Amino acid sequence: MTSTIMSRRDIDFLLFEWLDACALLSRERFNAHSRETLSGVLDLSEQLAEKRFAPHNRKSDLQEPRLVDGQVELIGDIEEALSAYAAAGLIGSTMDESVGGMQLPQCVFNACTAWFYGANMSTAAYNLLTIGNANLLLAHGTSDQVDVFVKPMLDGRHFGTMALSEPQAGSSLADITTRAVPQPDGSYRLFGNKMWISGADHQMGENIIHLVLAKAPGGGKGVKGISLFIVPKFLIDSDGSRGARNDVVVTGLNHKMGARGTVNTILNLGDGTFSPDGAPGAVGYLVGEEHRGLQYMFHMMNEARVGIGLSATALGYTGYLKSLEYARSRPQGRPLSRKDIDAPQSPIIEHADVRRMLLAQKSYVEGALALNLFCGRLLDEQKTATDPLERDRAGVLLDLLTPIAKSWPSQWCLEANSLAIQVHGGYGYTRDYDVEQHYRDNRLNPIHEGTHGIQAQDLLARKVLGDDGKGLQELGRMISHTVERASVDAQAKQMALDLSHSWERVLAVASHLKTVDDTAARLANASVFLEVAGHVVVAWIWLEQVLAAYGKAGDFYDGKRVAAQYFFRWELPRTAAQLELLAVTDGTLLDMKPEYF
Question: What mean pLDDT do residues 327-341 have?
Answer without folding.
Answer: 86
